[in-house]
Amino acid sequence: MPNLKSAKKRMRQNVVRHDRNVQVRTRVKTARRSMMEALEAKDAEAGQTALRTYSSVLDKAAKLGVIKKNTAIRRKTNAANGLRKIA
Predict the structure, then answer these.
(1) Which of 55, 37, 56, 57 is closest to 47 using CA atoms?
(2) How is the chain split into domains, by residue range?
(3) The pLDDT value given to residue 1
(4) Cα separation, 16 vs 22, whole angstroms
(5) Regions of the chain short of the pLDDT cut 50
């Protein structure tokens, strides 16, 4: 346990940030799962809406710093290429 006041505050901040990061990562995984289900079903319309949602979630995660910007770009590109293959 920390002894300094600033260390105690830093510990509280880390707990809050960890919880937020877990929530964001869960949102990303859920959006990715719905995107993959649409691609496996070869449903172009559901894929379009899933891609839009997935892109939005990835951008928000990158903005918060949970994932890196280039990681979000790469994942969006791969998802769009997968959707292009079935369309």
Answers:
(1) 37
(2) 5-86
(3) 87
(4) 10
(5) none
How far, in Å, CA of 55 to CA of 78, rounded? 11
Residues whose CB falls within 8 Å of the CB of residue 35, separated by 6 or more in sequence, listed in order: 47, 50, 51, 53, 54, 79, 82
Q: Which helix (H) or strand (E) holds 65?
A: none
Q: Check if the beta carbon of residue 70 is closer than 8 Å to that of residue 41.
A: no
Residue 21, CA atoms < 13 Å, CB-side half-sphere:
10
Instruction: Tell me which architecture the domain covering 5-86 has in CATH.
Output: Up-down Bundle (1.20)
Altogether, the residues listed in the chain come to a count of: 87
> Which pLDDT belongs to residue 57?
98
Tokens of 32: 């990715």
The whole model's pTM is what?
0.89
